[in-house]
């Protein structure tokens, strides 16, 4: 369908009208617009327009400036920058009209020559659809954006960020914790936390990431999240205890976990999944118990595992089989003697206490090596003489 033709720009009339209806603080922008447009300095004009659209006082004037001014020369400027500009304008337009505005801009940009611009606009449109709970339509736009990205050799950080953000938000609505966790971390890898996210956004993202790490049935290694500065946003908030809970799981500490369980009442998802979380902390306790043992002493009795995990001995075999199936450990089960041989433990980020324990074991190993050397060296030297 053909797009409506924008009104023919009469520059002096546009500038005069803008100066008459906007705050004095914005007037220098319009004077610059006129000078740069007249000289056809499209790159510099684009930069000045970004400054304008980022100015808090411009919010009520963004759509008008875009439709009456930018549309006159939109084919002459970088199409990705045009799409990014359009997203900024759309944020100042009430919904769902913003989706219509973005769709109109999408139709005017050639996807073959500016695929990244299409990704930016498709993800912005999907974001609006998610706000109106139209998950199916949003997923269609997200998939289309993903297909465009896969065909590109390289993608700008801002484009990646837009895609992973809306993908994470989609999986959040579906309560697919693992997919939300993965896409959120990819999103965070593309942005500057201080520059690109407000304090409230950082706090909300850290909150939901923490819940996803805990509730995802395939995530038992929180290392990337525990090392990420996004968790600093939880400090001083009502969700600060979630960071402690993450470290508790990472350490496999049943005692610390039980002390935090009463706080689950403030998080409906944790309260609802308390049985699952109990099994998950038991798995982490099993991993930690195996990790603490010397390499030549990785055989554990069912009784020992029951004590370490606070489980009945009848539940131990199922727990070990679960750990083996999830590839958290490798080894074998002796059902007759009720023993488990662990040959490998999934690597993960260690706490200070765990690092201290590892250092002690390395020290003991060095001492044993020195003892062996002390016994063997005199015999070797004697034979050599």
UniProtKB/TrEMBL annotation:
Q: Which residues, if any, are the signal sequence?
A: none
State one molecular function term (GO).
Answer: structural molecule activity
Q: Which residues cross the membrane?
A: none
Q: Which GO terms describe its biological process?
A: ubiquitin-dependent protein catabolic process
Task: Output the superkingdom of the source species.
Answer: Eukaryota
Q: What is this protein called?
A: PCI domain-containing protein
Q: Which UniProt keywords apply?
A: Proteasome
Q: What family does the database annotate?
A: Belongs to the proteasome subunit S11 family.
Give the InterPro entries listed for this entry: PCI_dom, PSD13_N, PSMD13, WH_DNA-bd_sf
SUPFAM superfamilies in the cross-refs: Winged helix' DNA-binding domain (SSF46785)
Q: What is the lineage of its organism?
A: Eukaryota, Fungi, Dikarya, Basidiomycota, Agaricomycotina
Q: Which residues form the PCI domain?
A: 179-347
Q: Which Pfam families match?
A: PCI (PF01399), PSD13_N (PF22037)
GO cellular component terms?
A: cytosol; nucleus; proteasome regulatory particle, lid subcomplex
